[in-house]
């Protein structure tokens, strides 16, 4: 039974939950621990590594995109406290997101010969643009990614992200736990998993084929993930990667959640 969803997005990046609506969503899912891991952004209303909101423990986290040389990866930082270096990098990344969002919107509008009901703003991500595309076409969000704004799409624009080493350094300073997100989603999962040698954790539980933005064709054999957990003595984490209000699709059971919280609390001792 999932009691901790350690990968959730809010309106602070490209999700739909707010801190006000999160506790009710958690209760509906039977989840008592939620990690808010907005893309390249710390939540402005979370000041402590762990807070309590209406009976739900909320872990302050971040999902940071990094460049590993051969591919981009996503690092998850848990139990985050603000540092000057992290704040400066987040400010840079948010400006890059705004510039990139504006460029993608321009390309989509030219490609579709229509105006999108969206403007570039702090926290903007491709899901926002995909929803805007769906609102003015007969297609859905998955089509928008597949045909227009996905990594190989005609309207894709790349981002300027920190190197893997720099991202890990920033998170090592700011977070209690640093892990690799959704290791089987990358073009080269084996190379991604090899990066776990310098991390604390890896996301084991993940809904690889449970609706947008996931892909049923992705390999879900978890044995390579289990191997690096054993080889590097990693903490297994897990979460739904929720961009909507449905939590608990994947995550940690009670024993795993206890280890997760202890790892954050213990880091402050």
How would you describe this structure to a colleague?
- By secondary structure, the chain is of the alpha/beta class.
- It folds into 2 domains: 4-81 and 163-267, Alpha-Beta Barrel (TIM Barrel), CATH 3.20.20; 89-149, no CATH class.
- The chain has 8 helices and 8 strands, in the order βαββββααααβαβαβα.
- The protein has helices at residues 22-29, 84-112, 126-136, 141-149, 164-174, 189-194, 223-232, 254-267, and strands at 4-8, 33-39, 50-53, 56-67, 72-78, 177-180, 201-205, 235-238.
- Strands 1, 2, 3, 4, 5, 6, 7 and 8 form an 8-stranded mixed sheet that branches.
- Helix 3 (126-136) crosses helix 4.
- The protein is globular, with a radius of gyration of 18 Å.
- The relative contact order is 0.19.
- The model has no long low-confidence stretch (mean pLDDT 94).
CATH topology of the largest domain: TIM Barrel
At CATH's second level, what is the architecture of the largest domain? Alpha-Beta Barrel
Q: Any low-confidence stretches, pLDDT <50, length ≥5?
A: none
Query: How many domains comprise the coordinates?
Result: 2
Task: Provide the helix percentage.
Answer: 25-40%
Count of discrete alpha- or pi-helical segments spanning 4 or more residues: 8
Rg, alpha carbons: 18 Å
Distance between the termini: 30 Å
Number of distinct beta strands: 8
Reading off the top of the CATH hierarchy, the class of the largest domain is best stated as Alpha Beta
Q: Name the CATH homologous superfamily of the largest domain.
A: Metal-dependent hydrolases
Give the SSE order as H and E letters: EHEEEEHHHHEHEHEH
Sketch the major β-sheet. 8 strands, mixed
| Form type | globular
**Mean of all residue-level pLDDT scores:** 94
- Beta content: 15-25%
- What structural class results from the helix and strand content? alpha/beta
């Amino acid at each position: 039974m999932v009691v901790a969803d350690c990968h959730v997005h809010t309106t602070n990046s490209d999700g739909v939950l707010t801190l006000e609506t999160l506790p009710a969503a958690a209760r509906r899912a039977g989840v008592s621990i939620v990690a808010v891991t907005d893309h390249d952004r710390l939540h402005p209303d979370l000041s402590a590594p762990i807070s309590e909101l209406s009976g739900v423990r909320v872990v302050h986290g971040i999902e940071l995109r990094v460049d590993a040389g051969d591919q981009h990866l996503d690092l998850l930082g848990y139990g985050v406290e603000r540092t000057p270096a992290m704040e400066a990098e987040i400010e840079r990344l948010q400006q890059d997101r705004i510039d990139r969002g504006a460029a993608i919107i321009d390309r989509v509008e030219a490609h579709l010969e229509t105006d999108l009901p969206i403007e570039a703003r702090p926290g903007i991500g491709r899901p926002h643009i995909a929803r805007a595309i769906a609102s003015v076409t007969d297609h859905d969000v998955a089509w928008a990614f597949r045909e227009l704004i996905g990594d190989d799409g005609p309207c894709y624009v790349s981002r300027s992200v920190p190197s893997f080493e720099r991202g890990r350094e920033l998170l090592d300073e700011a977070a209690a736990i640093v892990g690799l997100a959704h290791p089987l989603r990358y073009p080269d999962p084996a190379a991604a998993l090899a990066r776990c040698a310098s991390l604390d954790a890896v996301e084991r539980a993940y809904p690889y084929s449970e609706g947008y933005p996931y892909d049923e064709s992705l390999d879900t054999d978890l044995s390579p993930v289990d191997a690096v957990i054993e080889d590097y003595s990693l903490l297994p984490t897990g979460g739904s990667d929720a961009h909507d209000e449905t939590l608990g699709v994947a995550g940690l059971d009670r024993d795993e959640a206890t280890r997760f919280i202890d790892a954050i609390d213990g880091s402050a001792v």
